[in-house]
Amino acid sequence: MTPEREGSRDHGRERAPSGATAATRPRTPRLDQPRPPRRRLLPEWDPDAFGRLSERIARFLGTGRFIVWMTVVIIVWVVWNVAAPVHLRFDQYPFIFLTLALSLQASYAAPLILLAQNRQDDRDRVNLEQDRKQNERSIADTEYLTREIAALRMGLGEVATRDWIRTELQDMLKEMERRGHGGPVVFPAERTERPPGRDADDR
User: Fold this and answer.
1) 126, 170, 176, 183: which one has the fewest Cβ atoms less than 10 Å from its Cβ?
2) What is the pLDDT along the chain (203 residues), one digit of tens a residue?
3) Could you give the angle at the alpha carbon of 177 between the alpha carbons of 174 and 183, nearest 5°?
């Protein structure tokens, strides 16, 4: 075997590791494809759904039904822990467990009510913004119509009516008769009788 062939074989053997490292090299992400979602340690939830649930709870907390049921539960709790046998009482006086339950309820009810109020404020803000834009459009339309009506009135004031033209022609004929252009000239429109109310319609 010649030294050239042995050198070529050794050269091929040396290239194999470089090809292996190229195959294991991490590929760069493609720019024409979206990146895969990352895993999050915290749980995900829908803010809109959570907000709707908080509004329902806050709406229920503000009803008379909730107050009646809470009053009934507290009365039954106190009566049971006072009048029941000792071995059946689960929260004796001073009712520490009841106080803890009411405190826990209040601590959750306050943020839920605030969240519901914030959502209502956001809706009110959006409604007010839409009303403001609608009022601006209405004002702009009213101003445009006012200008158009004023322009029409000015244009109608410059339009010559049939009565005005007839009066001007009669004045011209009288002026021509006064200057001595022959006998009296009668305007053709005066020979025919016009029905009443025609001039008002022509205007």
Assistant:
1) 183
2) 444 454 444 444 444 445 545 456 556 667 777 777 777 777 666 777 777 888 888 888 888 898 999 999 999 999 988 888 888 888 888 888 889 999 998 888 888 888 888 888 888 999 999 999 999 999 999 999 999 998 888 877 777 677 778 888 888 888 888 887 555 555 444 444 444 444 444 44
3) 130
Instruction: Give residue for tokens 């005066």.
Output: 190
Number of other residues whose CB lies within 10 A of the CB of residue 191: 7
Three state DSSP letters for 19-81: HHHHHHCCCCCCCCCCCCCCCCCCCCCCHHHHHHHHHHHHHHHCCHHHHHHHHHHHHHHHHHH
Beta-carbon contacts of residue 185 (< 8 Å; ≥ 6 apart): 173, 176, 177
| Closest C-alpha to 173, from 161, 158, 189, 195 | 189
Distance CA 184, CA 92 (A): 127
Q: Does pTM top 0.85 for this prediction?
A: no
Structure tokens at 148: 């158009």
Burial class (CB in 10 A: 0-12, 13-18, 19+), 146: exposed
